[in-house]
UniProtKB/TrEMBL annotation:
Primary localization class, coarse: membrane
Gene name, Swiss-Prot/TrEMBL: tacr3
Protein name: Neuromedin-K receptor
Residue span of region Disordered: 404-454
A GO cellular component entry from the record: sperm midpiece
Domain G-protein coupled receptors family 1 profile: 91-345
Family of the protein in this entry: Belongs to the G-protein coupled receptor 1 family.
One Gene Ontology biological process: regulation of uterine smooth muscle contraction
Length: 454
């Protein structure tokens, strides 16, 4: 994701601080980080990495480089980036194992979490360190094929991540606002996930198609050369930023606002029971967790996008002494978004917490209780396409109220007095039918169980 421009023509000039300018149609490299690295005329590195090489006749020792960092600073940055990669890869792999290895965890929401975890782990493993090395050294060591992959995959992974979150937001919206509608089946969920990846591939394909490497004296660069030049490049990346940041965050903002008002906006009329409170509490926990995930993603990526917008407009900032540190900090923050989700799941969801305890049970200070074991192995009741409670209640209502063979008026009268409560209230007491009707559409769905929300 580092953005290192290169020159079409091999002309370099020595700047006042040792940073030359490149003349020609400049291209920037490495996927998502170059979204706002505007290609134009005299354009120094959007990274703050010096992009010039001395002419063959010029002694390298004669050039001073304001972007050379002391060893201690390189060590600190390396430690920071290494920590992100380690936590993101192992944390997200454990999340995938928790969901796929335990039947109780295989819900619609969690299938999307698997897709999100896979995207984040892949981004950290295949992109973060490579881009960090490129940003630090300003030279591409990894060959032409990996150059194409590195320009192509980051946009793909970010697209898959953000739209997995969007799919979860829409699914939560449908489950809470209109609970009586059927939920997505496992097959439909897989189709949605497959569609997300297909769209991601299509969006990122131009990055792969136009990727090139350029070997220059003392340096090899990886970049994207657009056929129609800087204007086409800038237009493409404006579209990308809208599709992978602004638009999905707008959708999630609207859906979670409506869901939040519904869940926290006030008490539901009528008396309620333990089952209702249990479902309401579980729904709130899931929505709270996902809101934190989305807000974390938005905060982590915002400085990164702002950086490239500003440096594209005010290109003189690319020669500022501290611009490389600004870039490395904003890039680190964006990449750190891949490591926070497993931590959030562990802190806010008891089943993920139990799963992480099982994964790290070999640690002497991790204790797995019998309750933790049961959290992943048992269910409160077995959810079917239509819950047994709902089905039995409906059958009882029909039997009691519409039994044509009942000839004893007295028995009939007694039976009508013993009619079970409104099935949609799940056994909860109520004071009036209107209140109960409102409650029933909010509390439960014949297509979900409490397990779906906890």
């Amino acid at each position: 994701m580092a953005s290192v421009p290169t020159a079409e023509s091999e002309s370099w000039t020595d700047g006042a601080a040792g940073v030359g300018t490149q003349v020609g149609n400049l291209s920037s490299a490495l996927g998502v980080t170059e979204w706002f690295a505007l290609q134009a005329g005299n354009f120094s590195s959007a990274l703050g990495v010096p992009v010039t090489s001395p002419t063959p006749s010029q002694a390298r020792a004669n050039l001073t480089n304001q972007f050379v960092q002391p060893s201690w600073r390189i060590a600190l940055w390396s430690l920071a980036y290494g920590l992100v990669v380690a936590v993101a890869v192992f944390g997200n792999l454990i999340v995938i194992w928790i969901i796929l290895a335990h039947k109780r965890m295989r819900t619609v929401t969690n299938y999307f979490l698997v897709n999100l975890a896979f995207s984040d782990a892949s981004m950290a493993a295949f992109n973060t360190l490579v881009n960090f090395i490129y940003a630090l050294h300003g030279e591409w060591y990894f060959g032409a094929n990996y150059c194409r992959f590195q320009n192509f995959f980051p946009i793909t992974a970010v697209f898959a991540s953000i739209y997995s979150m969007t799919a979860i937001a829409v699914d939560r919206y449908m489950a809470i606002i209109d609970p009586l509608k059927p939920r997505l089946s496992a097959t439909a969920t897989k189709i949605v996930i497959g569609s997300i990846w297909i769209l991601a591939f299509l969006l990122a394909f131009p990055q792969c198609l136009y990727s090139k490497i350029k070997v220059m004296p003392g340096r090899t660069l990886c970049y994207v050369q657009w056929p129609e030049g800087p204007k086409q490049h800038f237009t493409y990346h404006i579209i990308v930023i809208i599709l992978v940041y602004c638009f999905p965050l707008l959708i999630m903002g609207v859906t979670y606002t409506i869901v939040g008002i519904t869940l926290w906006g006030g008490e539901i009329p009528g008396d309620t029971c333990d089952k209702y409170h249990e479902q309401l509490k579980a729904k709130r926990k899931v929505v709270k967790m996902m809101i934190i995930v989305v807000v974390t993603f938005a905060i982590c990526w915002l400085p990164y996008h702002i950086y490239f917008i500003i440096t594209a407009i005010y290109q003189q900032l690319n020669r500022w002494k501290y611009i490389q540190q600004v870039y490395l900090a904003s890039f680190w923050l964006a990449m750190s978004s891949t490591m926070y989700n497993p931590i959030i799941y562990c802190c806010l969801n008891k089943r993920f917490r139990a799963g992480f305890k099982r994964a790290f049970r070999w640690c002497p200070f991790i204790q797995v209780s019998s309750y933790d074991e049961l959290e992943l192995k048992t269910t409160r009741f077995h959810p079917t396409r239509q819950s047994s409670l709902y089905t039995v209640s409906r059958m009882e209502s029909v039997t009691v109220l519409f039994d044509p063979n009942d000839g004893d008026p007295a028995k009939s009268s007694r039976k009508k007095k013993a009619v079970p409560r409104d099935p949609s209230t799940n056994g909860c007491a109520r004071r009036d039918s209107k209140s109960a009707s409102t409650t029933s559409s909010f509390i439960s769905s014949p297509y979900t169980s409490v397990d779906e929300y906890s």
